[in-house]
Every structure is written in structure tokens, then in C-alpha cells.
Amino acid sequence: MIGLLRGKILGKQPPRVLLEVQGVGYEVDAPMTTFYDLPDVGAEVILYTHLAVREDAHTLYGFTTLTDRDLFRSLLKVNGVGARLALGILSGMNARTFIACVQGGDAAALVKLPGIGKKTAERLIIELRDRLDALAPATVPSGTPVVAASSPVDEAVSALVGLGYKAQEASSMVRVIDTTNMSSEDIIRSALQTTLQ
Q: Which residues of 124-155 are buried (b: 16+ CB within 10 A; e: fewer)?
């Protein structure tokens, strides 16, 4: 099992980070909450990882904190929640807010997350309420996000699609935002915040 990677960021295309570790390039999928904390391309970063093995793919997921990784793993244990949905949940809401919603039984806030309906929100609350007490925050140094070479709007739409939104829905979410001088990370953050309101 790969539990941690320390290396240089070669590229960032939400939700994927290309990380070079000792000459090997790892493609790591990360939630947007992790993307907001990533340093510039070329900088070194530590990511706590989870390796998901399926018949057709081995996918590595990365997080800047142990709390986020532990929450991701807890989400995977919930009936009907897969890795893509867990990534979408962590992209739409930080771990602290999510834990507060679950422990407070706030299904209305959880329904605003991508891919979460009323029944799934209730299932998350029932199955996770007692498990989340053990999660303690742990962080690593972070830096400032950077805009990649292609259009920030296109990157934002692509990232939202990667998080589980339909292409048309993602385009609509981005279209209502004034994206002038915004990075793709800022556009994604604004789109997700607008959805959660």
C-alpha cells in the first residue's frame, strides 16, 4: 500500500496532480480542498495517499492532511459511496464542516453536495456519526495554487465534470460567475460555494 508521497509537482489539472517522486511520475486524484492547499508547480509537497484497486484500474488519491484521507476512507465504507462520490464530497465541503454536518444531523447541507440525494445524506449521517469522532486534524505545509497554461474556465468545467457533475451542469455553474482574472481553482471554489448556498 502506498501511504504517503513526497515529491515535486510537475503538473496540476483538477482533479489530477502529477507528482515526481525519485524519477517516477505518479498521477494522483485529489479533492478541490486539497488543490486549494497545493504549492506552485515545481515545488515539493507531501500527500497522504489511498490506493484504490479495482479490476480495471489502480487509482491513487492524495490529500494534504491525514484527516482528509481518513474521512475519505470512512466515506468509502458507507453503502453506495464510491471513490468518485467521496472525492466530490471532499471537494464541496472541507472535512471539519462535513463532520459537523454529520454529527449535527444536517441532511439539508449534505444534499447540496454533488451526487448526494436525501437518502444518501441520511445514510451518511446514520453510518458515519459515531465513526467520525476519532478523526483529528493533521496538516502539512501548504502554498499558493497556480493557474495552468490552458484556459482557467475550461479547467474548471473539466474539474467539475471529474467531480461528478454533468458537462452541461458544470458549464452552467461556471457561466454564472464573473471569471475575469480568476484562476481555475478560484472558479471551482466559487462554483461549488454558489451550489451550496
A: bbebbeebbeebeeeeeeeeebbbbeeebbeb
User: Could you give phi then psi for residue 10, rounded to 5 degrees?
Assistant: -95, -25
Domain range 4-63, its CATH number among 1.10.630.10, 2.30.30.40, 2.40.50.140, 3.40.50.1260: 2.40.50.140
- Give strand ranges (E) for 57-152: 58-63
Q: What is the residue extent of each domain of the chain?
A: 4-63
| Helices 95-104 and 118-128: angle between axes, nearest 10 degrees | 90
Separation CA 108–CA 102 (nearest Å) = 11
Q: Whole-angstrom Cα distance, residue 165 to residue 114?
A: 7
What gap in Å lies between CA 176 and CA 40, rounded to an integer? Answer: 28
Read off the pTM: 0.69
Burial of 161 per CB tally in 10 Å (0-12, 13-18, 19+): middle
In this structure, are strands 44-53 and 24-29 parallel, antiparallel, or unpaired? unpaired
How long, in residues, is the chain? Answer: 197
- The model's pLDDT over 149-165, given as tens digits with 9 standing for 90+, comes to 357 887 887 788 777 77
What single DSSP character describes residue 103? H
d(CA 167, CA 172): 9
